[in-house]
Amino acid sequence: MGHGHSHGPTAAEGTSAAGRHRWRLAVSFGLVLAFFVVELVAGLLSDSLALISDAGHMAADVVTLGAALVATRIATRKDTTGRRTFGSYRAEVFASGFAVLVMLGVSIYIAVEAIGRFGSPGEPASGVMLVVGAIGLVINLISIALLRAGASESLNVRGAYLEVLADSLGSVGVIAAALLVRFTGATWWDTGIALAIAAFVAVRAVMLGREVLAVLGQHAPADVEPREILEALEALGSVEDVHDLHVWQLTSGMNVATAHVVASPTGARDGVALREASDLLRTKFSIAHATLQVETGVENCEGADW
Q1: Where among 216, 237, 259 does a domain terminate?
Q2: Which domain holds residue 34?
Q3: Which ranges carry the Cation efflux protein transmembrane domain (predicted)?
Q4: Quick check: 281 and 257 in contact, CB under 8 A?
Q5: Which of 10, 162, 190, 244 is most buried, taking the most CB atoms under 10 A from its CB?
């Protein structure tokens, strides 16, 4: 009975998808942090709930981007304990989960504050809202352009990207609220749009949260179908059967698999089955790390029963 393992380019380089886009996170973090301070002060001075809610969302951006940056740094640290056999790459997933909690907290705060303001006589300063909202939109669009490239590759970057994307819509909401308050004189527009921002943030948080739970629950990656892997491996001439297949995601861009492969008589010679199966997983299914136990038909497999 033999076994082997293979490493894709990602694992070999020791760099996760988020790590490759760390500089984008850093630039976006600096921009958003600077504007958050400006928007919070402006919101308090203008008494605009839409502006304050967007500043709260900006605060979530700051926390999310900061957590993403810290996670990418932790993920690249070498294990000195000998116990973290998979390294610290899961820190990026935990950062995404933290982003979900922050987004939900911000949306709840905005909703509670908005409901409490219905019927209040205060009138926000629409001019300040308009200027700050426009500046915020520009900052968010720059951050979106920076993070978009990594959002499709990394769950960690995607969490930050969705935060900034949601906040860009929040800036649009602030601009709309400013214009509506100015031209209609109805101050409830400020509160109503703040509620809409809160609802949008909550929906995006739930969607990202489902992705985080799928990774932590060791589900098969979204773009990988286990049945297709089984069929592709069994179609190899050097393989007779495949069982005990497990596929999961360590972090974004790092897919992992284990399997028992029953080699054909020709596949058992010179490690042909192991080599072909490893190459297939790496090239066709982007499995960064595959551990395969190669067996022959005459051996009894005593694998786990779960």
Answers
A1: 216
A2: 14-216
A3: 26-216
A4: yes
A5: 190
Give the 3-state secondary structure of residue 267.
coil
One digit per residue, the tens of pLDDT, for the chain of length 306 reads 455 555 444 433 445 555 677 788 888 888 888 888 888 888 888 777 777 777 777 777 787 778 778 877 887 778 788 888 888 888 878 888 887 888 888 888 878 877 776 666 556 667 887 888 888 889 889 988 888 877 777 766 777 787 778 778 778 888 888 888 888 877 777 778 878 878 887 887 888 899 889 999 999 988 889 999 999 999 999 999 999 999 999 877 788 999 999 999 888 888 899 999 999 999 999 887 899 999 987 666 766 666
Task: Indicate the residue among 196, 216, 236 that finishes a domain.
Answer: 216
Q: What is the CATH number of the domain that holds 251?
A: 3.30.70.1350
Write b or e for each residue in 79-88: b if 16 or more Cβ atoms lie within 10 A of its Cβ, otherwise e: eeeeeeeebb
212 and 236 assigned to the same domain: no
CA distances from 88 to 82, 134, 190, 191, 249 (A): 12, 40, 44, 43, 13
For residues 39 and 32, give the distance between their C-alpha atoms in angstroms, rounded to a whole number.
10
Q: Rounded to two decimals, what is the model's pTM? A: 0.73
